[in-house]
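Assemble and predict.
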Amino acid sequence: MADDIDMLAGEYLLGTLDPTETRAFQRRLLTDPAAVAAVAMWQDRLSPLLLTAPEAVPAAGLWARIEGTGASANDNRPLRRWQVATAAAALVALVSTGVALSPRPAPVAPVQVAQQAPSPLLQSVAALSEQGSKPALIVTYDPTKRVMRVMPVNVAPRPGHSLELWVIAGKAAPKSIGLMREDGATALEKMALDMRQDLTIAVTVEPKGGSPTGLATGPVIYSGPMVSLPTS
Amino acid sequence: MTSEDLPDLLLAVAEGDRAAFARFYQRTSAKLFGIVLRILPERSFAEDAMQEAYAKIWRNAAGYDAQRGSPITWAATIARNVAIDLRRREHPAGRTRVEDFDFDALGDPSGASAEQLAALRICLDRLDPEQRALILAAYLNGESREELSERLGHPTGTIKSWLHRGLARLKGCLDG
């Protein structure tokens, strides 16, 4: 078994899995710390080889491209990627309805639910928890405003690390949606989520500043499905 | 040119220091471009990959963990991953390389730990030549299983089992 995961992780790092296998393994990386560790081991084993590449000086214009259009045009400090959310009101609304956390409301309930949830923000919600324990995070998403709000309810601090949020749409590979603020509620704007798909939100522990590779590298500590609430 | 250490530069980059980012680029871009060009021989694709890689380096500098290797290795890994993603996405008619990888032609491994590289070299030398060639072609040139299968004229199942045997022996040799 240990050998299987090592071979799979090795092939994943080499890039020789086919696209279906790659996506399946990427999903596994979100929930299986042993798989993450196996990939990291292969990375450590092989990465010295990369530096044996003969140097090649890029065209002089490349730096201007990097500097001008992409990278440093934006502030890179993780905390500034997020705006402070005034999410307290939304949280109160959520808690007072109480129904938000039950999966897929029964078709007869909508009218009542809509009356109880006056805030138009609460159109989709996920309660993220450790397996089988009580919710640690509440995530809401307003598809009309494309705003996602993340409210820690009971999150253990992870000093020296960042908590990174991921969305998994159907069977697609996990996509990073940003880092959680260390000091509380977080709002993420301009989020386009396709609510017709089954969405799962997950949180991994990453090095400070987020995953260096764009793929989850740390263990998943919380996850939960996104549930659509009836809109008024 | 200053003699600043790359870890210090990267630390400054993480704080949003653009001048430090420019110096980090000066110090690392030739190496990273060399890595990317092996995967994307076409310069325009390689430059796109470089742009994306340095955008990632800028954004993720705070995530660099000194205990997991040198800054150049960290940046090299990011560049490789970006280049391979781009290669898979764009599929730039993979100018297939007929020549096998020549381990003796490796350039100056500046930045890698000498012992690590020596161990890796010894262990790679112990592999069967075709296993070694497959691992290097995949890791350094970014060839997919399908590309390897087409180029070498073996079914993908054969390629997979050679890769597994090679990886298992490599792991046994390096870890043992």
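The mean pLDDT of chain B is 85.
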